[in-house]
Amino acid sequence: MHAKVWGCRGSLASPGPETVRYGGNTSCVELRLGDGGVVILDAGTGIRALGIKLGEDPPPRIDLLLTHLHLDHLEGLGFFTPLWERKSDLHIWGPASPLKSLEDRIATYLSPPLFPVHLSDVPSQPTFHDVPEGEWEVGSAVITAQPVSHPGPTVGYRLDDDGRVFVYIPDHEPALGVDLKSVSPDWISGYGVAYGADVMLHDAQYTEDEYTMKVGWGHSSTDHVVTFAQIAKVRRLVMFHHDPLHTDADLEAILAKAKELWGENGGEIGLAYEGMEIDLP
Amino acid sequence: MQWDTRQKNLLLILARDVASKIATPMFVVASDGRLVFYNEAAEGVLGQTFADAGEMRAEEWSAAFRPVDADGRPIELKELPLGIALYERRPAHKTFRILGADGVQRDLAVTAIPLLAHQDEIVGAVALFWSEPQEGTP
Fold first, then answer.
1. B73-81 mean pLDDT
2. What is the DSSP string of chain B?
3. N or C terminus: which one in chain A shows less Cβ crowding within 10 Å?
């Protein structure tokens, strides 16, 4: 399995000279499975460039897994080239709400007046799947989606491809209402889906000071993400969903703090950046 | 252990968070009826801390507090508000008497609601309850 980050900014695209090193595009990650299959995680603005790249050698099937429908995870979908190709075999997975299907929920955005074309009129006619309970298979990967603590229906994904586990939880506030350091792990949101991951891309939006003003907004502080990863015995933590107000220098200061908290517990910790590639051989 | 058994359902986690922050006694059970949490306010009514009681199977907690109706007849789990919420998937309300772990009988008014993640998926239930004055007491 091989991963490439096409967007790792949270909340709002933030291009400019102060974000050029880690990138300004919102959430999008490409996964190439062991059998060559293409899985995409989220459809933030990063998916636009990925779509152009995929157009050079169109894959027979694309599975797009959406964690939730906040705009920074969806706004690139209308600019994803394969959506407009009649021959695309595009499968879109994501959480339903308690009352509406995924397709109905996405159509709220991909329809006038927010978008010029209605979802029902796009040439590729994608197949929509409400994420199921339990495991399902896409190509060589076994995938699980689990609801996580974030406003509105939101899931984290776990992909197991030939025994290597990739976990993606870009928007997550596991510390909401619990003290991560004292509560039993089975009471921690996301613990089940993250446990034992070889690589985990996880929300790391706020500093400790910022978090105190934004409790309940659905994101993690530096301390929370490090603690959560250590409790879940994650081998490599990639800090993701960078705050749009954080410059490259801010992010590097956050990483220094995270490394201090991470200590000498083994494993790796780092910041996601656009163009980052991760191998899980 | 499989990954999906490591963690409680998110709705239960959020329900526990609410319970831990409110002053009204509240009881949280999983889809199989297992008691997974009650709050500090409930401890005074049930006569025992949750730390001492711990998680209990449905048969255990429903027997432990010996619920009886106004005529002193035992009430089965399926007739309790939480049992109705779990097995019939609808809200329920009832007044009955329990025997607390501290040996004190209390009259309770209990309202329970099912926790439905989707219309066809129950993940547990919660009950809010109030201690009512015993008949004949001022």
1. 93
2. --GGGSS--HHHHHHHHHHHH-SS-EEEEETT--EEEE-HHHHHHHTS-HHHH--B-HHHHHHHT--B-TTS-B--GGGSHHHHHHHT-S-EEEEEEEE-TTS-EEEEEEEEEEEEEETTEEEEEEEEEEEEPPTT--
3. C
